[in-house]
Design goal:
By secondary structure, the chain is an alpha+beta fold. The chain has 7 helices and 9 strands; from the N terminus they run E-E-E-E-H-E-E-H-E-E-E-H-H-H-H-H. The termini are far apart.
């Protein structure tokens, strides 16, 4: 896990340096909105409801809508004047009995890990909370907003649970009128409760929906029912050609700037996604093909020229070497004749 916040727990004159970790994570099955025909993702544009034009992100401001529908625009300067809290302190306000905290108030949970220097006071606070069966009501600034939270112990770890503000808990606006309930019905209900009584074990429950979705998707993948889109990536563990990826990235960047990218694409690779793009890219591909053929023709011509030149050079060198061999043979014959004449004179 990665710490998302660092600070200290302060109660009285004691400070416990701690790290904050997210204690929960969502495993909900998420779906993309896609075009049923080709599997392309659905994109949304930021369009102004008044003039119908697309608005750049830099031109978007924060607005507060009043009850009568009027809009109050808040600028960055207005927001800078708000009281923002950036304290790195978890301040203990009071210790309250655990049964006084309504579970509906709990919002998000975090684990607190002590720094090495705060291990002992952390253990003391943990033991005090366990033995007193109380929770510590604290105030903490997370994401520049002050929140009310509690500290409680779970499996020898202190957990910080942020809470909702009281006005965020809705009051039911309905009542239940079941009429008269007879004593026999109450006894039968109590017997049913006793029959189903037991201890809570979260591992006994499974997310059947998520498992069913995963099985359905796996069956479709094995059956080949997959739409290949421009954003599809390899999932078979194959090594991606880094050079090709870099070339495609450069081409995409140049295309976004409106530059010509026909000559920059790799010659030995084709991109399935580009084939389904706009038709105005096709002439550029043909031009690139012609240039490639011209290059190959030039290369073949240069190769044939160099081969003919090298062959003629080889013939000349062999012709020059042949007289040299004859000259050497003549000189050797003269030397042998001179030796024979000297021998005859000596005899």
């Amino acid at each position: 896990m990665r710490a998302i916040w660092k600070g200290s727990v302060s109660f009285g004159l004691v400070n416990v340096p701690v790290k904050l970790y997210s204690a929960t994570e969502s495993h909900d099955v998420s779906f993309r909105q896609v075009h049923a025909k080709d599997g392309g993702r659905i994109k949304y544009q930021r369009v102004c409801s008044i003039d119908g034009e697309e608005v750049a992100y830099a031109d978007i401001a924060k607005g507060y809508e009043t009850e009568d529908g009027e809009m109050v625009i808040l600028t960055d300067d207005d927001l800078a004047q708000l009281p923002l809290t950036s304290s790195r302190e978890i301040a203990v306000e009071k210790f309250v009995p655990s049964d006084q905290i309504d579970p509906m108030l709990f919002e998000k949970s975090y684990y607190l890990e002590p720094e090495k220097t705060g291990a002992k006071p952390y253990a003391l606070l943990r033991q005090a909370l366990q033995e007193a069966d109380r929770m510590a009501v604290v105030t903490v600034a997370l994401r520049q907003r002050t929140s009310v939270a509690v500290l409680r112990v779970r499996d020898d770890v202190i957990v910080l649970q942020t809470m909702m503000w009281p006005d965020e808990i809705r009051t039911p606006d309905f009542s239940v009128d079941a009429g008269e309930v007879r004593s026999g019905e109450v006894k039968m209900a109590q017997m049913l409760v006793e029959t189903l009584a037991g201890d809570f074990d979260p591992t006994e429950f499974e997310d059947d929906y998520a498992e069913a979705v995963e099985a359905l998707v796996s069956a479709k993948i094995e059956g080949g029912e997959v739409k290949r889109t421009a954003t599809s990536t390899k999932s078979s563990g194959e090594v991606v050609d880094l050079l090709a990826a870099l070339q495609k990235s450069v081409a995409a960047a140049k295309k976004a700037r409106g530059e010509d990218v026909a000559d920059e694409e790799p010659e030995d690779q084709t991109d399935e996604a580009d084939e389904t793009d706009e038709t105005d890219e096709k002439p550029a591909r043909k031009t690139a093909a012609k240039k490639t053929s011209a290059k190959s023709t030039a290369k073949s011509t240069s190769k044939s020229t160099s081969e003919s030149t090298s062959s003629s050079t080889a013939k000349k060198s062999s012709a020059k070497k042949a007289p040299a061999k004859k000259t050497a043979a003549k000189s050797a014959a003269k030397k042998s004749t001179a030796k024979k004449a000297e021998t005859r004179k000596a005899s």
